[in-house]
């Protein structure tokens, strides 16, 4: 399995899990997730973007 496929599966599974728990996946997150899948950002970048969107402290 190549890296892009692995990333896509990780994102898909995470979004599915969130939706099963009653969460909503925003369009903004979907755009950021696509950047992650495409290799434009890494996992830390995805986390930073998500935390910044909601005004949470960065780690």
Overview of the structural elements:
The chain is mainly α and 59 residues long. The chain is built from three helices and no strands. The chain has helices spanning 3-20, 27-37, 43-53. Helix 1 runs antiparallel to helix 2 (27-37) and helix 2 packs antiparallel against helix 3 (43-53). The termini are far apart. The mean pLDDT is 95.
Q: Could you give the distance between the termini? A: 30 Å
> What order do the SSEs take from the amino end to the carboxyl end, as H and E?
HHH
Provide a count of the helices.
3
**Number of DSSP strand runs:** 0
What fraction of residues sit in β-strands? under 5%
Give the radius of gyration: 12 Å
Model regions low in confidence, pLDDT < 50 over at least 5 residues: none
Briefly note the structural class of the backbone. Answer: mainly alpha
What shape does the CA trace take? globular
Give average pLDDT, whole number: 95
Keywords:
single chain, 59 residues, mainly alpha, 68% helix, 0% strand
Task: Walk me through the topology.
Elements: H1 3-20, H2 27-37, H3 43-53
Helix pairs in contact: 1-2, 2-3
Quick structural gist:
By secondary structure, the protein is mainly alpha-helical.
